[in-house]
Amino acid sequence: MKKKTPRAGFVFTKHTPKEKSIFDRLFEVFQELITHTSGDFDEAIDWLRQLDKEYELTTADYTIEDFIQELKDRGFIREEFKPDGKGGDKGDGKGGMSITEKLERSLRKRALEQIFGKIKRSGQGNHKTKYVGSGDEQSGDFRNYQFGDGLNNIRMTESIKNAQINNGAENFRLTENDLVVEESMHKSQMSTVLMIDISHSMILYGEDRITPAKKVAMALSELITTHYPKDTLDILVFGNDAWPIKIKDLPYLNVGPYHTNTVAGLELAMDMLRRKRNTNKQIFMITDGKPSCLRLPDGRYYKNSNGLDEHIVNKCYMMAAQARKLHIPITTFMIASDPYLQQFVDNFTEANQGKAFYTALQGLGEMIFTDYENNRKRKL
Asked: What does the pLDDT look like over 303-333, one tens digit per residue?
């Protein structure tokens, strides 16, 4: 009797997506809400309850209270107690729930996956830039072989194709003139300062602009700490003044009743970069408004929100030129469409010889990530 030989190869079946649990579905919504509410657990849960009433997210067997308990069991939230030992569930109105470092990491990871997913689907995104600085070259280019090129950079498929075209298939010869080399890229260490505008205009006009900025900062910090540990990322916020914030503070970031002191932000950013040993340094600035504030030598604030104040604007141009002398390019991500503000950004970018992107909120993350990757590469 003949033995049946086992079949080798791949067996393809219809993809059946894994069904998400109620907790996983709620957790997705909850992470979005906790980002919007700047880490306010009670407000996020109130919004979740309203969504549950409208869309029936829970069941009789699994309620919002069960979800909260599972968040505690999994270590995403914790109950904080006041010095008197009382907590938020004691009915005294003191204490309450707060998010943990585990949830903060989850928010950063989620932001990274969201932005990287969009990059993979849509490529480089649609953006407009008038001034191009250093490090904006693309990889994957081909050129003719030159003496001294490494053999490992020769692309045989393209080279053989050239030989067939040049010499014919019947009399096949591969010569030096047929060889094609792919451009290699050197990834250098990079020190980056991300400036985030937290002036009041970031939540005006019915548009939440601070949440996308927070998401970009969380995603960029997760990218650098996990993929490029030798790179550095410092984050600062600027309103009437400028001050640094830590990565763990990003979920709680909120706007204030501030004007826009762009000069203070640039001064702090350049001071941070002076201390870095990396040769390659850059500043990313996310803003939606015009500079409207300066701190005077005597400590008083000079503010003017009406149009573009010449005194304030000239100070910004001086800072841009100073950064240029220090070989620090500034990339401005402008999330406003007013023509006179775009003119200011154009002039500011020209003074620095950096780059300017005019973008909607939806494309902000993809643009910053693509630009960061491009600036880390140098053609050899």
From this structure: 998 889 999 999 999 999 999 999 999 999 8
